[in-house]
């Protein structure tokens, strides 16, 4: 009997048997345990440590994109290694989906809308939606951060602490893209595929996806937790809406734009401006 070519393999049916559901649930926990779920657990412990410290939450600092070495080239190697290994869970999620959902790597990318460059893809539409989502989230997000600082429920976030090198801005841009791919592919696209396999209602997916997103931002304080939950609701709802059409690329574009503005803008902003804005 001739094997069916991978490109024409039939999509796997949802997990309907108890053993299939247990396997799918275990897979979700493993993927999250290696990526954003692990970050969420550490962030919960971190916020407990912050809230029980002698220093007020508002007087504490969270540093992103810190230098790893005083030597420029060694620091660059560390930064690139960190970005590369952070993308491994993305590859794992795509690999697992390709094995159980569409049976091909290309088919999986099309299924979740990560098909930029493939036939039939519409990058212009994805970019337009991405910038629209970034604008819709970015301005309220900054206002929410400043409000949290004023209320004392958000730490001072240093979006970039890299030393000034010729490669600083390019690395910050790549780091922003890495964050966009990791969070949107795993917390939205992968989680939606797997919770749909388990028969979850769309509303439950939106709730758990947004709570996951908020959890791994808790190290920044209580304010960013709620701000990212709101962002998670918007992104998860959009992804499953008739406008989002299960395409994750607009979310990746939006997240990358937001982080590029935060990372690069913070790195280039004069210190007196940062002080005036409370950054």
TrEMBL record:
- Please report the stretch or stretches of sequence annotated as the CAAX prenyl protease 2/Lysostaphin resistance protein A-like domain: 166-260
Q: Indicate the transmembrane segments per the record.
A: 28-49, 76-97, 127-147, 225-241, 248-269
**What keywords tag this UniProt record?**
Hydrolase, Membrane, Protease, Transmembrane, Transmembrane helix
Question: Coiled-coil ranges per the record?
Answer: none
Determine if Signal is one of this entry's keywords. Answer: no
Pfam families linked to this entry: Rce1-like
Q: Name one GO molecular function term.
A: peptidase activity
**GO BP, one annotated term:** proteolysis
Protein name stated in the entry: CAAX amino protease
- The species is Isoptericola cucumis
């Amino acid at each position: 009997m001739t094997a069916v070519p991978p490109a024409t393999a039939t999509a796997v049916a949802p997990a309907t048997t108890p053993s299939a559901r247990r396997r799918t649930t275990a897979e979700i926990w493993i993927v999250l345990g290696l990526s954003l779920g692990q970050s969420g657990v550490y962030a919960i412990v971190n916020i407990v440590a912050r809230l029980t410290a002698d220093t007020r939450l508002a007087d504490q600092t969270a540093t992103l994109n810190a230098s790893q070495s005083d030597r420029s080239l060694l620091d660059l190697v560390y930064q690139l290694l960190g970005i590369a290994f952070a993308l491994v869970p993305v590859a794992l999620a795509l690999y697992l989906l390709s094995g159980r959902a569409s049976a091909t790597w290309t088919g999986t990318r099309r299924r979740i809308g990560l098909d930029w460059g493939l036939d039939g893809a519409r990058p212009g539409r994805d970019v337009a939606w991405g910038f629209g989502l970034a604008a819709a989230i970015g301005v309220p997000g900054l206002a929410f951060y400043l409000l949290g600082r004023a209320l004392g429920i958000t730490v001072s976030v240093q979006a970039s602490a890299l030393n000034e090198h010729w490669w600083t801005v390019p690395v910050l841009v790549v780091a922003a893209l890495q964050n966009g791919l990791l969070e949107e592919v795993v917390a939205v696209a992968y989680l939606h595929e797997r919770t749909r396999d388990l028969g979850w209602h769309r509303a439950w997916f939106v709730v758990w996806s947004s709570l996951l997103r908020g959890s791994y931002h808790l190290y920044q304080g209580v304010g960013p937790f709620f701000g990212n939950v709101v962002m998670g609701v918007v992104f998860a709802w959009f992804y499953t809406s008739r406008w989002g059409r299960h395409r994750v690329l607009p979310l990746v574009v939006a997240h990358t734009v937001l982080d590029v503005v935060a990372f690069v803008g913070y790195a280039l902003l004069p210190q007196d401006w940062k002080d005036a804005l409370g950054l």
